[in-house]
Amino acid sequence: MTQVTTRPPEVRPVSDRRTWRPVAGAVVVLAGALLPWASVVLPAGAYPDLATLQFFDAPYLVTGFRLHLVLLGLAAALLPRARRSVGIGVLIIALVHTGFLIGYGALSIGGPVALVGGALVVWSGRALPAPELKLPGRAVAWLALLAAFAALLWLVTQTLTAGGQSRATNSYGAAEFLAFCGFGLALIGSLSAYGILTWLAALTERHRLFAFTVMLACALMLPLTEAGTGYWMTVAATIGIYAATATGLNIVVGLAGLLDLGYVAFLGLGAFTAANLAHTLPFPLAALAGAAAAGVFGVVVGAPTLRVRGDYLAIVTLAFGEIFFRAAQNNIGGLTGGANSIPGIPQITMFGQDFNEPLGALPAGFLYYVVAVLMVAGAVAVLLNLKSSRMGRAWRAIKEDEDVARAMGVRTGRAKILAFLVGAMLAGLAGAVFAHKMGTVGYESFDFSESVTLLAAVVLGGMGTVPGAIVGASLLFVLPEKLREFSDYRLMLFGLALILIMRFRPQGLVSS
Length: 512
What we know:
Blueprint: H1 16-34, H2 64-78, H3 83-103, H4 110-124, H5 138-161, H6 173-193, H7 196-206, H8 208-220, H9 230-255, H10 264-277, H11 283-302, H12 311-329, E1 349-350, E2 353-354, H13 366-387, H14 390-400, H15 402-407, H16 412-438, H17 448-461, H18 468-482, H19 490-504
Helix pairs in contact: 1-2, 1-4, 2-3, 2-6, 3-4, 3-6, 5-6, 5-8, 7-8, 8-13, 9-13, 9-16, 9-17, 9-18, 10-11, 10-16, 11-16, 13-16, 14-16, 17-18
Organism: Nonomuraea diastatica
Subcellular location: Cell membrane
Membrane topology: Multi-pass membrane protein
């Protein structure tokens, strides 16, 4: 018998054509960060962070977007799994600043170099499965969650303060903000590529009460950071009101799968109820009355929809929202003020302190921000408990297939009405806070576009997820504020951003 010997497969070294890409890309990105960017000093002043030829005598004193490019260049060389996310971040930063400099009529030097480096890094990146990280013990898990939420607080603070508050204080604020968004996306993408975000999500789920407490504490610490100004406290309080409203909509749409296009009417019902009772009842009772009124109408809307679903349900809820808007516009019943609105709604007070006034060294609007944070925390607690309850399982079954759910014994009619009831009450409570914070309530605040914005917040953040509505509402209200410098173009850019997110992340930013 002839013995046949086999040789082990020859292991060929990786060709130079593949190994030089990440190294070359990282080197080119670093070179682009250290090179000057603007060829002249612009009329509005030197381009930020030592980026003009005038300051090239100190090329290594990089800050701002150039420091971010240095960090991303090092990450491209040291973190192979994160190269694609890093390269996309580099491209965003380089495109933003190159475009701004072209708009100012200045020749960009470092911009094209950074663009080439970012393209090389993206070219060298490969989509690899994220590693599975083991969950540690309680002590290590708590420390990891503390560090994670502290980092989240830093990221939120830097996002809000990037580029300043207005064009009057920083002519290049929009470029700095958009560039920081690119850096933030690269950072989040890198953490996801190495499985850290999934690991933190698992830790949060296992230690839910501790994570919820730490997250609440970090949210209450925002006024103590650089973002603790009266302007951002006002914006953050408004975001909190709409985030609580979107959380209620997340129950209706995300859990039960009931498409509601008139949901903003419940926010308006709570606001108008509290506005009419503000002079006769203290705020807690007026807020409860607003939530109860919205809940009653939630049942009224939910009852006729028991036999409709899908597009037909959307039409019914759209009709309800339009009926409410026209009734408020025409002041039917004399309860909405019509074109005159309802002015003179008193501010919330406690121990003689108006909530719209500064509290010691804390900025104006701090107390309304605290109310908004506590309201969002309560809405999240309701969503968490309902999601894991028997009714939550019934809602998810209805969302997947209502006929199968009914065949398995789920009382679908009762479950759908309860979803409308809970969602409407959360919106009504948020509307009561909205009325007292604004001091006046008019019908124009509750048109169809607001319902679309709330629905977009739920879909963008992630339907059915706990933080999804909060993330979506925050983005939908922070981005327009930061893009005010683009005037007529900001809504177009805002819509383009939504299209890109839905194209590349259809499950939402926070997937279930």
